[in-house]
User: Which sequence fits this backbone?
């Protein structure tokens, strides 16, 4: 008898985590991939995309209600909103709409993977206990990550499928037009600074320059998502996932400057949302001058997220020993991650 084919439904397929997971599954082989996003995507062998508005229950059921062969749901979609209260309704609704549409028809469903983050620990609210651990108490609601996990835990009761929740740090990797992409923000900010003849200046307060933090390589995150979804030991568990090392911007920033052949300057608090708002014409000129791919300035401008990352003045760390105990042993040096990302962006003609 032929083994049942694994079919991955990747929700948020054009985001930084979704793209990395799809790339990993393609290289691994043995998977059929269905990607969901509002923008759709270009189909290729074993990968197809469905454009869908997950906030629209009817559209979700119409387009997903026949996906009876899905075996694994990887949920990494996100709707940005200004406040924690406003984040709950849309982000919970999208997850509910996906599960409501797919679970009843996908009789071979084995696992639902949920993408979370350090918001579970209150990292977006202010100084939180570090290193954060999966057993730490939740903070006062609202918190959409917790609401989503609670929904999955309730829904899974008595079912054959299992769930997992992945909690990465700041995710660094390739994606265009996404609201959370600090690596792309650094590359574009550095390239524009260099174009203007400026040194590379850390755009946050001096206190942020010296915090201890970790980050998560999107490629490593993709491999962790698959591990947690397919290793029985990881069933119904949450895991912190980061690169496995820590650094201070005061140490890393000069190395990043060197990667762009730039001098470094002392930190200066800047609102990236404000100071980068008028840089569209500069970007268009750079695209023409350097023969870059024709990405719009909006697609390379995750400045709100980057401002938050560079303005954090408290340690930003989580313990990943639980994932190691359960079997995920992978790690990468963060300096290597940045170097490889910037080289990849140049290869793709995103930056000079």
Assistant:
């Amino acid at each position: 008898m032929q083994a049942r084919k694994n079919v991955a439904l990747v929700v948020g397929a054009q985001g930084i985590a979704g793209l990395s997971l799809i790339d990993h599954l393609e290289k691994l082989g043995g998977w059929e991939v269905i990607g969901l996003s509002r923008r759709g995507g270009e189909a290729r062998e074993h990968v197809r995309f469905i454009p869908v508005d997950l906030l629209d229950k009817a559209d979700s059921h119409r387009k997903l209600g026949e996906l009876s062969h899905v075996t694994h749901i990887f949920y990494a979609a996100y709707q940005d909103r200004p406040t924690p209260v406003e984040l709950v309704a849309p982000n919970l609704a999208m997850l509910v709409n996906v599960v409501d549409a797919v679970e009843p028809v996908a009789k071979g469903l084995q696992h639902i993977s949920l993408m979370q983050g350090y918001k579970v620990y209150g990292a977006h609210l202010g100084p939180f206990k570090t290193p954060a651990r999966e057993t730490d108490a939740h903070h006062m609601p609202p918190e959409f990550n917790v609401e989503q996990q609670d929904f999955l835990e309730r829904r899974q009761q008595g079912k054959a499928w299992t769930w997992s929740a992945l909690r990465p740090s700041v995710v660094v990797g390739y994606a265009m037009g996404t609201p959370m992409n600090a690596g792309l923000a650094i590359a574009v900010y550095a390239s524009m600074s260099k174009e203007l003849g400026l040194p590379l200046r850390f755009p946050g307060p001096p206190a942020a320059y010296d915090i201890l933090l970790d980050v998560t390589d999107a490629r490593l995150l993709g491999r962790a998502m698959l591990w947690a979804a397919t290793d029985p030991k990881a069933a119904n568990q949450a895991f912190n996932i980061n690169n496995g090392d820590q650094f201070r911007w005061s140490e890393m920033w000069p190395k990043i400057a060197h990667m762009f052949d730039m001098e470094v300057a002392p930190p200066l608090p800047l609102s990236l949302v404000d100071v980068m708002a008028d840089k569209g014409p500069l970007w268009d000129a750079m695209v023409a001058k350097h023969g870059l791919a024709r990405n719009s300035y909006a697609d390379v401008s995750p400045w709100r997220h980057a401002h938050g990352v560079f303005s954090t003045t408290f340690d930003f760390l989580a313990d990943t020993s639980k994932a190691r105990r359960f079997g995920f042993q992978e790690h990468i040096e963060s300096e290597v991650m940045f170097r490889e990302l910037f080289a990849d962006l140049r290869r793709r003609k995103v930056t000079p």
The chain has a mean pLDDT of 97. The longest strand covers residues 31-37. Residues 209 and 276 are 20 Å apart (CA to CA).
